[in-house]
Amino acid sequence: MSDQCSSDCSSCGESCGDRTQEQTDFRAPANQHSHVKKLIAVVSGKGGVGKSLITSMMAVLTTRRGKQAAILDADITGPSIPQAFNLHQQAYGTDDGIVPVVSASGIPVMSLNLLLENETDPVVWRGPVIAGTVKQFWSDVIWGDIDYMFVDMPPGTGDVPLTVFQSLPVDGIIIVTTPQELVGMIVEKAANMAGMMNIPILGIVENLSYFTCPDCGSKHRIFGESHIQELADKHNIPVICQLPINPELAAAADNGTVETMHEEHINHFISQLFEQETNK
Q1: Are strands 69-73 and 108-110 parallel, antiparallel or unpaired?
Q2: Model pLDDT for residues 255-266, shown as the tens digit of each residue
Q3: Please, is 197 exposed, middle or buried when counting C-beta atoms within 10 Å of its C-beta (0-12, 13-18, 19+)?
Q4: Which of 51, 186, 216, 280 has the highest local Cβ count within 10 Å?
């Protein structure tokens, strides 16, 4: 028992030997027509590291392997998943729930931008409302039979990540980072939060890791030397992916053609993740 223990087990998240009450289960029920086998959250310590791009590519490559993937866009104030898949129609509701929009390759997507009258309308909501919307995307959307659902998280460790970790049955997280030391420090916060919530870290993707010269083939570390191995060793994370700067991949996301792209590094990363799941 901690020296700071208040003896109120109902408000405590610790699993100490002196616990006299069971921990409260905050998980929200899924829609009755949803059957999701694995739920993976894609997180980052800060914005602008390519998290939505990684989420999109993982869903696309998972689908190409014959698995049914889906994307829950939890970045309510900065939704970019619909743009990557060229989805501009609106989702609609039925008596059973909200029907997600399905991409060209068959990936169900739910994002706030699929509910807004105008895609450029700002979302000026407070944290609890945003967190409640994410929970509704899980409980009210008719997802159907899904093998792997990827949750595109907003950056940081605020209301939405806490809601997702507590309310959704998260099987693991993937952390997206870039080589800068400052970003690495912020990644530590995300990793530590996952540890506090007992969510396993499946791997780290280091985006913008290097640029390969098209003329001589040499690698240039545009954003500095990588520290991904240090982070992986510190948190005992077995799967690592270093993604080079690829203007074509970025353009595909901007143009809504991400489903036509093939990124070997992410494909290898997906293979390793699937191998981890098989060996469990």
Answers
A1: parallel
A2: 999 998 877 878
A3: middle
A4: 51
Q: Which two tokens stand for residue 72?
A: 């829950």
Helix (H) or strand (E) holding 278: helix 264-279
Cβ atoms 132, 167 nearer than 8 A = no
Nearest CA-CA partner of 202 in 182, 173, 176, 177: 173
Distance of alpha carbon 199 from alpha carbon 171, whole angstroms? 7
Q: Cβ contacts of residue 100 below 8 Å, gap of 6+?
A: 70, 91, 108, 109, 110, 114, 141, 142, 143
pLDDT-flagged residues of the chain (< 70): 1-25, 181-184, 277-280
**Span 90-123, pLDDT tens digits:** 999 999 999 999 999 999 999 999 999 888 888 8
Q: Token pair for residue 271?
A: 């293979």
List the CATH code of the domain at 35-279: 3.40.50.300
How far from each other are the two terminal CA atoms of the chain, in whole angstroms? 33
Residue carrying the six token digits 């993976």: 40
Report how far apart, in Å, the C-alpha atoms of 159 and of each of 130, 132, 175, 177, 238 are. Answer: 8, 10, 18, 20, 28
Distance of CA 211 to the CA centre of its chain: 25
The per-residue pLDDT for 167 is: 92
Largest CA distance in the chain: 67
Burial class (CB in 10 A: 0-12, 13-18, 19+), 124: exposed
Q: Which residue in this structure is represented by tokens 């208040």?
A: 6
Query: Of 1, 23, 3, 28, which Cα lies nearest the Cα of 13?
Result: 23
Q: Report the alpha-carbon distance of residue 237 to residue 276 in Å, rounded.
A: 12
167 within 8 A of 58, measured Cβ to Cβ = no
The Cα–Cα gap between 203 and 229 comes to: 11
Sign of CA dihedral 157, 161, 165, 170: negative
